Amino acid sequence: MTDKIILKKEEGRLNITFNNPDKKNALTSDMYSLASNEINKAESDLSVSVIILSGSGGNFSSGNDLFDFINDPYNPSVINFLESISSSSLPIAAAVNGVAVGIGATMLLHCDFVYSSPDTYFSFPFIDLGLVPEAAASLLLPKLVGHKKASELLMLGKPFYSEEALEMGFISKICPEKDLLDEVNNLANLLTTKPRESLCLTKKLLCTEEESVTDRMAREHQKFRDLLGTKNTQNIINAILNKKKNK
Amino acid sequence: MTDKIILKKEEGRLNITFNNPDKKNALTSDMYSLASNEINKAESDLSVSVIILSGSGGNFSSGNDLFDFINDPYNPSVINFLESISSSSLPIAAAVNGVAVGIGATMLLHCDFVYSSPDTYFSFPFIDLGLVPEAAASLLLPKLVGHKKASELLMLGKPFYSEEALEMGFISKICPEKDLLDEVNNLANLLTTKPRESLCLTKKLLCTEEESVTDRMAREHQKFRDLLGTKNTQNIINAILNKKKNK
Amino acid sequence: MTDKIILKKEEGRLNITFNNPDKKNALTSDMYSLASNEINKAESDLSVSVIILSGSGGNFSSGNDLFDFINDPYNPSVINFLESISSSSLPIAAAVNGVAVGIGATMLLHCDFVYSSPDTYFSFPFIDLGLVPEAAASLLLPKLVGHKKASELLMLGKPFYSEEALEMGFISKICPEKDLLDEVNNLANLLTTKPRESLCLTKKLLCTEEESVTDRMAREHQKFRDLLGTKNTQNIINAILNKKKNK
Q1: For an engineered disulfide with A53, which of A94, B4, B76, B168 has Cβ 3.0 to 4.6 Å away?
Q2: Cβ neighbours of residue B85 under 8 Å, at least 6 residues apart?
Q3: Over the stretch A36-86, which tens digit does the pLDDT of each residue have?
Q4: In which domain, by residue range, is C228 found?
Q5: Same domain? A50 vs A64
């Protein structure tokens, strides 16, 4: 039996690949459990700075396995998976091609960087299945693209492609399919060069939305001061000042 | 006396037309009361799936009747009308042409789909009247178009046209004036083909903004599971699976 | 000793100019204290309707003085300055050229109008200093430009220029450098012609984000009704009605 989730860890990157290519990487309970388990473990693994999601066989994911919807509708693994990616303090990058449908599209709202190939097909077909959006798409999509656009995508179930996705800010960048994984790995390598604590704190701040400006400023300031007092940060700033002096 | 609000109900659509053409459909207390009454009634009317707002005589609405501002400034009908459109669980589409000024523009923030003709003139002239924005425009407009753009529109009272409105996400689509009502009716017909409960729940989710990601995911998930357990949804999914099997 | 903050008050405008040109207007504790003091005082000064921020010598600001980060890291003047601009009820306009880095960029999130010259260099280099974003940038930037774009700017520390800044809604307008201050002063003059109470209330509403639609509508409505009852507003509306009658 082939592994439906392929894991690879190297140079600070944890690669998680959905591997159910016959069903365009439809996601089953087992796959959610495996993936969320790895994402949760990475939290305390100092050798990991970035998580990368991708799919094998030319597609990202066609969404939840429909047989699971019929046979095992109340399995908690989906919500556990969504919790693990939405609460991760590590930056998450996605390499998306082929189809990104249902949870294959909504999980991208919880990624910090999404690179996709030009022909990627995105859709949120929940309403046509008699369902509602999940993964906080009903909250995050209007924040990202505005209420009018989100209504089209979620109430009409209208599909869209990479160019429209980029324009509305749903993805970060369009890459030729042959370079897609390389470009995402390069991005991830760049992230691994950043001070890890700064990176994780910044990521967490970016993902917390419900807060007043004053409270947020106070919370940022606390982290800012803590970091400013560390040897690491003092060394970085002193190095910059010395460089300026010697110019 | 002509009716200042024209009502038409057919094929799942409730059409509400502002009909005060001599004053470019300026809105009076009576008109607000009539409209909000119908919108509230539609909530429990299972024969209605979509509400359509439009104006007669070539304009959408020139805003609140200024005589009412002088003669009857504290009438609660305005806020009741705004409450009814902002709290409706039915999708609301608007067909907008001519002028959309003051509440004629701010009510569009509570519509899910806004189609407008190319020459439509939009403005929020509250500040030049010595007033402040209403209809939660001070909250919803910055969310939709960003703080800088909202400042221009609300602090300077700068008018704008359909092209700019589309670019900033304030409207959904520009249609030639002669096709405007047809296109909105077509959109509404499409919405009436969607499972009504999914549609209303999705609409409500899209209009609730103050919530954490975790809370929203949990709430979506509850509705998702409830719907997944219904015969209707099971039938839809089984039909898709059978179609796949027989391919 | 030259003043590191230059103040000029005329015709309803308070101009605050950062004046530390040898260090591209790097900001020191003294400069923050002076500036926030003036911003706070303007709050109750009815002769001031608009605050204008700018820098001398061809730059806006290169950010916090790095020596201060080393020698005086826990000085409360930064957070006091940020509080004063984020809580001001007066509209704030900025004229930005040269470099706008660190707090020189994040403070712009609290300005209502930002005009910048074409070649202005913006960046949020916090992560590369081993720090986190401040000034509620981790909250306000994702709201303004979306999560994906904010991740690029804050996690990668990627710099950007005026054209990209305008496209993402971070600034209001690009002006040729030679006209920059004139254009901002013209904008400020226009703002001083607006009813001052309407202006300040509108500004405050635009800057309060955490609220339900219903609560916001109620709060706006209260202010709206209060203003509608004033002689000033009644006079404005009567003048418009008389003009219409006499047409």
Answers
A1: A94
A2: B36, B39, B92, B107, B110, B111
A3: 999 999 999 999 999 999 999 999 999 999 888 888 777 889 999 999 999
A4: 196-245
A5: yes
Backbone φ and ψ for B121, nearest 5 degrees, come out as: -105, 115
- Residues 6+ away with beta carbon under 8 Å from C40: C84
C221 and C101 within one domain: no
Please answer whether residues C156 and A191 qualify as being in contact, where contact means their C-beta atoms are separated by less than 8 angstroms: yes
Residues A132, A205, single domain; the answer is no
Does residue A87 share a domain with residue A35?
yes
Chains in touch with A (≥3 Cβ pairs < 8 A): B, C
Contact A171 C148 (CB under 8 A): yes
CB atoms within 10 A of CB B143: 18
The verdict on C186 and C202 lying in the same domain is: no
Strands lying side by side in the sheet with B5-10: B5-10, B13-18, B50-55, B92-96, B113-116, B173-174
The C-alpha torsion from A157 through A163 and A165 to A169, rounded to 10°, is: -150
pLDDT digits (tens, 9 = 90+) for C50-93: 999 999 999 999 999 988 888 877 788 999 999 999 999 999 99
Give the count of domains, chain B. Answer: 2
Answer yes or no: are the C-beta atoms of B89 and B43 closer than 8 Å.
yes
What is the ipTM metric for this complex? 0.93
In whole angstroms, how far apart are CA C25 and each of A138, C3, C57, C82? 44, 12, 8, 17
pLDDT at A71: 82
- Residues 6 or more apart from A17 whose CB is under 8 A from it? A5, A6, A7, A8, A53, A54, A55, A56
Contact C121, C98 (CB under 8 A): yes
* Structure tokens that stand for A20 in this block: 């159910």
Give the residue on C whose Cα is nearest the Cα of A239: C129
Nearest Cβ partner for C227 among B130, B147, B151:
B130
Interface contact flag, B74 C171, Cβ < 8 Å:
no
DSSP state at residue A37 = H
Shortest alpha-carbon distance between residue B145 and chain A (Å): 8
Query: Does residue B227 share a domain with residue B143?
Result: no
Whether residues A218 and A184 fall in one domain:
no
Q: Hey, how many other C-beta atoms are within 10 angstroms of the C-beta on A44?
A: 8
Q: What is the per-residue pLDDT for C221?
A: 86
The answer to whether the beta carbons of residues C155 and C182 sit under 8 Å apart is no
Q: What is the pLDDT of residues B115-172, one digit of tens each?
A: 999 999 999 999 999 999 999 999 999 999 999 999 999 999 999 999 999 999 999 9
